[in-house]
Amino acid sequence: MPIRATTVVGQFYPSDRTECARAVEQAMGQHQPLAAERVFGGIAPHAGWIFSGACAGYLFSALRDQSYCPDTVVLFGAVHYPGVSTASAYGSGAWRTPLGDLAVDAELAQAALDSDRDGLLVDEPRAHAREHAIEVQLPFVRFCWPDVCILPVAVTPSRSAETVGRTIASSAQSLGREIVVVGSSDLTHYGPRYGMAPAGIGQPALDWTHANDRGLLDEAVAMRPEGVLRQASTQHNACGAGAIAATIACCRELGAEQGRLLHYTTSHEVYPMGRASDLVGYGAVAYCR
User: Rounded to 5 degrees, what angle do the CA atoms 128, 134, 136 make?
Assistant: First the structure.
């Protein structure tokens, strides 16, 4: 059975089991229950936990508070590296975390692949080899539901992301799977380091980033995947627009009727180092009924 080894453990999140569990618990421990009939999934950031872990904790707290334990957590991840042109599942095996391995739901993966008539989804583990967007979510998943299966899918920022999301939702329904859905994306990458600094540095930079992210988050909360993709293309305010679009489509197919912004911040506000210069936006959104 292929096991996907960790790639950013010890850098983005703790490698020690006890320390990792403590960090997850701390990130999730300060949030009030979300008043909703059901939370189907949502969006979480994927930077190093020192910056974005608490923001991700908002979503996982909302998901864990549900009265049921899912069979499978579907994780849609950003594509940061070239060479991935099609939504790519990791269709079998397991992923390693400091808290224990998580088995891939191979039956659900195959059902989704069989349902895809247009070649929009492939089984391609190599697409996940260097990616961290899904990996950093997995200790949260393992902490919340130790026996759950996962289905990781790297999603490119194209209109096909919506179809991929709907395909996986309908495949889960046909198998009788209870699933929750996590889309992994950071927001605006602002500053000279990222080649985008239209407002200079300092408070104007922070204000500009907030406004730029607001456009993307408004579309995400309104559950408009096409708006998310358009915003990311024109405003460069999401690195995982495909993951967000697939999550919205998947959650809507499952029965979600509204999005709620749980938390928003930036790396500068979490960990300020002088005047705002190079910073990244982070948002947590839940899709519920």
Answer: 120
